[in-house]
């Protein structure tokens, strides 16, 4: 079972998500929270696999709550809930450790798919959204120290990173590079280990902020 905590200050939103997820045989909502501080407590108590995290909440906002969970070493994957897909708060949440984000009005099947993908470690941002978010908010032209970890990547790992940065799924990367899905997962795991990144989202942010990848460039 995939264990989920829902954090949103609107009761109707939490209820709506719970009703959707309760229909899935492999997903269980194990807790709800009306603010960020309560969410951090609930995650500590329930040890969920995924957190649906609203950005704007009282007491403690979703960004800070995500940062605290990351710093505490929580294994929970945070999916940020937002109203606008080009919200600067979303990017800040990704930098704080979120694994991806969802629009609050996303279709039911997209919500369920995103939760499963979060657990599997696959792509969580649509390619167009990935590019717009990163290109709008990432700082480029980082220091040589920031670039150093990327120099340890093999040619194939660099190719995989460039495609992952487009928001491609493991299957899409495998098809483009004529590799098996398992091989792609291995390359991603090695890439993350070399970069010291929690997940593919953090690797993308690091790549753009260091200047290894550049907004507007082909990068492939």
From TrEMBL:
The keyword Phosphoprotein applies. CDD domains: LuxR_C_like, REC_NarL-like. It holds the Pfam family GerE. Residues 3-119 form the Response regulatory domain. It comes from the Bacteria. Keywords: DNA-binding, Phosphoprotein, Transcription, Transcription regulation. Residues 146-211 form the HTH luxR-type domain. The modification 4-aspartylphosphate is found at residue 54. InterPro entries: CheY-like_superfamily, NreC/VraR/RcsB-like_REC, Sig_transdc_resp-reg_C-effctor, Sig_transdc_resp-reg_receiver, Tscrpt_reg_LuxR_C, WalR-like. PANTHER family: TRANSCRIPTIONAL REGULATORY PROTEIN NARL-RELATED (PTHR43214:SF24), TWO-COMPONENT RESPONSE REGULATOR (PTHR43214). This is Response regulator transcription factor. It comes from Microbacterium panaciterrae. The lineage of its organism: Bacteria, Bacillati, Actinomycetota, Actinomycetes, Micrococcales.
């Amino acid at each position: 079972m995939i264990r989920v905590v829902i954090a949103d200050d609107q009761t109707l939103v939490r209820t709506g998500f719970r009703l959707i997820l309760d229909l899935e045989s492999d997903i269980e909502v194990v807790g709800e929270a009306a603010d960020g501080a309560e969410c951090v407590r609930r995650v500590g108590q329930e040890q969920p696999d995924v957190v649906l995290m609203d950005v704007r909440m009282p007491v403690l906002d979703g960004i800070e709550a995500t940062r605290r969970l990351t710093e505490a070493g929580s294994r929970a994957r945070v999916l940020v809930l937002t109203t606008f897909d080009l919200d600067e708060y979303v990017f800040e949440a990704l930098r704080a450790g979120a694994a991806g984000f969802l629009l609050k009005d996303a279709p039911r099947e997209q919500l369920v798919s995103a939760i499963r993908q979060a657990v599997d470690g696959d792509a969580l941002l649509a390619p167009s959204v990935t590019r717009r978010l990163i290109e709008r908010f990432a700082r480029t032209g980082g220091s040589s120290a920031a670039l150093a970890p990327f120099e340890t990547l093999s040619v194939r790992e660099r190719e995989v990173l460039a495609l992952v940065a487009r928001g491609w799924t493991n299957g899409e990367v495998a098809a483009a590079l004529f590799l098996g899905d398992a091989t792609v997962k291995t390359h991603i795991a090695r890439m993350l280990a070399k970069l010291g990144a929690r997940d593919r989202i953090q690797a993308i942010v690091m790549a753009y902020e260091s200047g290894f990848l550049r907004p507007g460039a082909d990068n492939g």
